[in-house]
Design brief:
With about 425 residues, this protein is mostly helical. It has one domain: Amino acid/polyamine transporter I (Up-down Bundle), CATH 1.20.1740.10. Helices cover about 70% and strands about 5% of the residues. The chain contains 15 helices and 4 strands. The strands form 2 sheets. The chain has a two-stranded antiparallel sheet. Strands 3-4 form a two-stranded antiparallel sheet. The longest helix is centred in the N-terminal third of the chain and has 43 residues. About 50% of the residues are buried. It comes from Pisum sativum (Garden pea). Keywords: Amino-acid transport, Membrane, Transmembrane, Transmembrane helix, Transport. InterPro entries: AA_transpt_TM (IPR013057). This is Amino acid transporter transmembrane domain-containing protein. It is found in: Membrane.
Amino acid sequence: MAVEQGDRYSSIEAPLLNDEKVNDGNTTTTTKDQQHLTVHHVANASSFKTCFHLLNAISGVGIVSIPYALASGGWVSIFLLFTIALACCYTGTLVKKCMDMDPNIRTFPDIGQHAFGSKGRLIVSIIMNSELYLAVTGFLILEGDNLNKLIPNVEIHIGELSIGGTTMFTMVTCLVILPTVLFEDMSLLSYVSAGGALASSIFIVSLLWNGAIDGTGFHGKGRVFNWSGVPSAVSLYAFCYSAHPVLPTLYNSMRNKTHFSGVLIVSFSACTFGYAAAAILGYLMFGQEVESQVTLNLQTGKLSSRVAIYTTLVNPIAKYALMLTPVINAIKMKVSCNKRVTHMIISTSLLVSSLIIAVTIPLFGYLMSLVGALLSVSASILVPSICYLKISGDYKRFGSGMIINYSIIVMGVAIAVFGTYRSLIDIIQNL
């Protein structure tokens, strides 16, 4: 999302538009395909609605890999989940403080520009769009793996070429998603995908039902601590909290902005306890045998297993186009063309390229670990902390604020370096 029209109405912001009263100014038609609108937003969202939107932004597919993250680091690493959650909640308040210092900051890249000029905007935009692109690539891998779990041993034959398993289902998922990425109006999908928190709740209940009632049991002992697995664990934990790019929109949409810090605390606390519950349940059920997606451990003959898998499958299909739209808009602005055919070419090309990556690197856990370490940490921890220090000038003043922010930056850099290295090694070794 950048400062211009294409970013202001990106998919990340689409569900929030009804929370703002929009008054159109004069409309000047420059060409048949372009219109420049002057819009004025009046914040009208209640604290409850803002909390609802943030819960859905934080709740995502990371919940299916959270038991694997706990298995990687051992039981003690659950405290690292709470540490990262606390750090991300704190950096969320830094986003608010940056916006309070300059009311012209409307989007996440605006913070980078205010701190470091056009280079800062470019870096933040690259981080944000790369994270979105690789996250939706993970959606394709997840869909392929879980569909293959539900319907195993299926192949199609094209001449002498045989395609089956996860590769075939990943390609089928792309065909299903294709019409959604061709739409320029994401308003319908924004409401379909707004059930992230509900989907996570259903998933946790299904997991509990599967272990307690459907006979799987809670017999996995697991390890107390595994130092070598900590980089992978914290990287996957960080991936679960990659909602910071939406915070400026949420803050601007609020009627009473003084309640925003409370909204952050409630939302991050609720999602963290949900993630912790899923992690503990999955690890107790399957121990060290837990897969990178805990749904792959579930027996499909049981109703609770099917509910968990179906819930996992539905949300990514709706969210794919929504999350890819900011990337599409950024490219469209670079090529300075807003025509319908340009949108179709760019969106289709991105979908096909993400399919190629998903088929080439069908390693959901390792790829999401890479995204978490390299991009989620950058967007949710490093960017807010570094930009706040620069904008506020706290980097010049020794005090508690300076110590806390530099401590968070050191933690973020450590996760980025060691987590990225570990993820790349794992990907290379398993290709």
